[in-house]
């Protein structure tokens, strides 16, 4: 009796397509849900199978990516892709608990042990209305040039070891005292309290003196 029941169950499941592996050949990323074409390892060819991914995250797997396919209702004609992987590009040797985002070009973001986030890319672009960085100990930039397209404001002291060069604009404006250790060279005139260093005169018994030479 149980043998006959087992045979009937086997015959019933033989007509139901189980989950299977496939290799992606094309991804259409234009719609609300991505549609893929894939070649199954059993020789089947999938057309416009839906690729489901978690909310808040999306990727366009390159051709050659492996896929896990689930036929809904046991029918290959209504299959969905529930996972993809590409062994040639996946970051390897991650430590337990580490998480990474990566692309086939080598860009990557790795959440590493020790609460370290490592980012590697050729160009890092950030577009926002307000960017706020709170670094309780230090913020460092190792770069030959640091540019600002408009005003730069510092609430504390600005220190430098390589000098200060200002070109164009309205020059330099300082409100407060200036303490100088060393010499100062000026190619133009210098004024103090409205008095010209280059053309000022002094009152003398025989009349005003000549300007400095």
UniProtKB/TrEMBL annotation:
It comes from Chromobacterium alticapitis. This is Phage baseplate assembly protein V. Pfam families: Phage_Mu_Gp45. Residues 185-213 are annotated as: Disordered. Residues 21-87 form the Bacteriophage Mu Gp45 N-terminal domain.
């Amino acid at each position: 009796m149980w043998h006959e029941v087992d045979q009937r169950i086997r015959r019933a499941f033989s007509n139901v397509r189980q989950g299977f592996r496939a290799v992606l050949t094309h991804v259409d990323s234009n719609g609300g849900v991505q549609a893929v074409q894939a070649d199954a390892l059993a020789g089947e060819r999938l057309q416009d199978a839906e690729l489901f991914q978690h909310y808040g995250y999306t990727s366009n797997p390159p051709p050659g990516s492996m896929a896990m396919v689930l036929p809904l209702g046991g029918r290959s004609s209504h299959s969905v892709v529930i996972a993809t992987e590409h062994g040639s590009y996946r970051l390897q040797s991650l430590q337990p608990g580490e998480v990474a985002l990566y692309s086939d070009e080598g860009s990557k973001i790795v959440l590493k042990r020790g609460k370290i986030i490592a980012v590697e890319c050729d160009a890092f672009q950030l577009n926002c209305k307000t960017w706020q960085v709170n670094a309780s100990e230090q913020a460092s930039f190792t770069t030959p040039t640091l540019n600002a397209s408009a005003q730069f404001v510092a609430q504390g002291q600005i220190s430098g070891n390589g000098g200060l060069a200002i070109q164009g604009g309205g020059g330099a404006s300082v409100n407060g005292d200036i303490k100088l250790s060393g010499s100062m060279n000026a190619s133009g005139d210098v004024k103090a309290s409205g008095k010209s260093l280059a053309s000022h005169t002094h009152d003398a018994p025989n009349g005003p003196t000549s300007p400095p030479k």
